[in-house]
Amino acid sequence: MTAQDPVPEMRIGDRERRAVDDRLRAALDDGVLTVLEYDERVQQCWASRTQRELDTLVVDLPASSAVAPAPAEGQPASTHRPPWHERLGRAVVPVVLAGVAVFVAGHLVTADDGGAVFGNRTVTVAPGDTEVQVGTLFGSTEVVVPPGFAVRTTGTMIFGSTRCEQACAIPPGAPTLPELVVDANGAFGSVEVVTPGEAATGGLDRDRDDNDGDDD
Known about the structure:
alpha/beta
């Protein structure tokens, strides 16, 4: 062959691609590669046609990610590898929880009227207020609203709930009332918006227990 007609590179098959895929997955399990890096390289791996293309995908990986540890004497070699969705979950869940923490921390800082962190808190709205902001993280916040308002709840509770029963109920034919907005944000907790009467009887959970007892 001449310089103008070089020898073509030897093509590879699925066996070589699988070997590189295994090495990439080992690097992902070891934390050498991120999920995004693994996804990008594994796509390139299965699109490769020559050994040179495969080699570029693992040239920067340590040898420890390519070779599994030898099994103890008398024990068979383990071939178990967690499925892809478990590996993805281990990478994604911390990111999601970090995002939740940032979201909740921001709203707790800006919650002008109070917040609950790993505990319970009661916030009483003054008669002249038209908006109240509360935050909750792994706790419970009770917001007691005065009569004479049309109460509306806003905000976001992640893995939690915002409950408003009598305070948000407007009887048919009732006159137009000024609006009171309860902005509730947080995670892993609950916010209850109650009237003074509901608060005096123990809140919404107490009312539910009483109703359950009446049915017996």
